[in-house]
């Protein structure tokens, strides 16, 4: 790590600026799902046979976010490791500002699709800056520091429905939220340019590469850990972006309220999981336990057609799927690639990006071809993917500890 804990105090403001960027990222990752009808109408969407607006094109644009991440991660990791965390972070935050201002300025689905890709590219560069940086700033609690990036996201996703309600009650356009977030990202980009970052000790890493075997091994458990980036992301992305339609089909009048239960669950999960890890719970145990809980809850939501079950389900899915599993998978993967933290982050997030694009594109397709049955079909798809994630986590748990020791020796 770059420096001792006393010296690292000077980087705490930097950490705060990076966590704030993730706070706004939380809005960017869910705001489109809250205004699907408005965007569909702005892009000239037609109505379905039941009289509702066809929002499938908006779901497709949300899926483009994953495509953008997939495009950028192979470059974002090396930029972070070789050029610097600051540059990677600045690019990400600046592109987020472009996303917020751009999305409300277009009236064509395909241009919006391109801006959705920019959203994903922004996420890529921010991820490969923030996760390694906070782990370097807080080396003694690296997994917990990375876990709190999720806390920043879940906190804003809890607040967001109230902000949406305030904007609506004030008879302001939904564009107000986008403009405000764009301005905040510009301010944060300036802060990232001027605040200090920990040194990456590149000279030490070069010496290691010359004098020792490189600590990069694609072992079975390392590959499984990377692939959890796909499964863990799919579980909460599907729920986050498709629960409103499920809520409507189960008779909930204001399905946006499900978002609050989801966010509360995720926020509590981050705080409790951080404490559990501090007390000695292994990250690999969480990677098995939490997705297993998600599967049980998704099954209940499928078989019990009741609004109350969905409220409980939103809380539980928020806790077990969105409460830091992806971040812990990232921390675990970094353990297999200790000399290339940015690139290791990229590998997990590439898997996450594929999930975002593939599963949301599949959800859009199911919405189009199955109509009213789509929400329940999407739940089944989610169950299968999450079950695969449990299998991958078992591989990491059984083989990962031995392999990680071998890599470190």
From TrEMBL:
Localisation per UniProt entry: Cell membrane
InterPro entries associated with the record: MFS, MFS_dom, MFS_trans_sf, MFS_Transporter, Sugar_transporter_CS
Membrane topology: Multi-pass membrane protein
GO CC annotations on file: plasma membrane
Keywords linked to the UniProt accession: Membrane, Transmembrane, Transmembrane helix, Transport
Keyword flag Amino-acid biosynthesis: no
Ranges of residues in domain Major facilitator superfamily (MFS) profile: 14-401
Gene3D superfamilies from the UniProt entry: MFS general substrate transporter like domains
Keyword set includes Transport: yes
Top-level taxon of origin: Bacteria
Membrane spanning residue stretches: 12-35, 55-75, 87-104, 110-130, 151-170, 176-197, 218-240, 260-279, 286-305, 311-337, 344-366, 378-396
GO molecular function: transmembrane transporter activity
Record-stated family: Belongs to the major facilitator superfamily.
PANTHER family: BYPASS OF STOP CODON PROTEIN 6 (PTHR23514:SF3)
Name the UniProt record assigns to this protein: MFS transporter
Organism: Pediococcus pentosaceus
Lineage: Bacteria, Bacillati, Bacillota, Bacilli, Lactobacillales
């Amino acid at each position: 790590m770059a420096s001792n804990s006393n010296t690292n105090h000077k980087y705490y403001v930097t950490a705060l600026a990076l966590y704030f960027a993730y706070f706004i990222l939380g809005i960017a990752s869910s705001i489109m799902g809250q205004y699907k009808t408005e965007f569909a109408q702005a892009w000239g969407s037609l109505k379905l046979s039941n009289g509702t607006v066809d929002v499938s094109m908006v779901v497709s644009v949300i899926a483009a976010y994953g495509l953008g991440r997939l495009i950028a991660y192979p470059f974002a990791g090396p930029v972070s490791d070789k050029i610097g965390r600051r540059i990677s972070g600045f690019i990400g935050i600046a592109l987020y500002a472009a996303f917020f201002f751009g999305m409300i300025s277009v009236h064509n689905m395909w241009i919006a699709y391109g801006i959705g890709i920019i959203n994903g590219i922004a996420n890529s560069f921010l991820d490969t800056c923030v996760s390694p940086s906070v782990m370097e700033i807080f080396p003694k609690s690296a997994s917990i520091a990375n876990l709190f990036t999720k806390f920043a996201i879940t906190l804003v996703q809890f607040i967001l429905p109230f902000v949406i309600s305030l904007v609506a009650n004030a008879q302001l356009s939904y564009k107000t939220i986008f403009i405000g977030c764009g301005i905040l990202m510009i301010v944060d980009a300036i802060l990232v340019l001027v605040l200090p970052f920990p040194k990456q000790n590149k000279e030490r890493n070069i010496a290691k590469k010359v004098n020792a075997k490189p600590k990069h091994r694609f072992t079975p458990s390392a590959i499984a850990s990377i692939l959890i980036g796909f499964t863990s992301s799919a579980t909460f992305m599907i729920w986050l972006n498709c629960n409103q339609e499920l809520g409507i089909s189960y008779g909930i009048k204001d399905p946006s309220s499900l978002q609050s239960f989801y966010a509360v669950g995720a926020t509590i999960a981050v705080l409790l999981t951080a404490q559990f890890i501090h007390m000695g719970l292994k990250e690999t145990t969480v990677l098995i336990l939490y997705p297993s809980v998600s599967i049980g809850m998704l099954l209940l939501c499928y078989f019990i057609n009741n609004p109350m079950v969905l409220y409980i389900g939103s809380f539980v899915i928020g806790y077990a799927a969105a409460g830091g599993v992806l971040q812990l998978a990232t921390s675990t993967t970094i353990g297999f690639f200790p000399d290339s933290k940015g690139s290791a982050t990229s590998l997990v997030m590439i898997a996450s990006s594929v999930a975002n694009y593939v599963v949301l594109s599949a959800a859009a397709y199911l919405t189009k071809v199955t109509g009213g049955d789509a929400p329940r079909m999407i739940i089944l798809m989610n169950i299968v993917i999450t079950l695969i994630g449990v299998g991958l986590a078992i591989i990491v748990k059984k083989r990962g500890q031995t392999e990680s020791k071998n890599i470190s020796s």
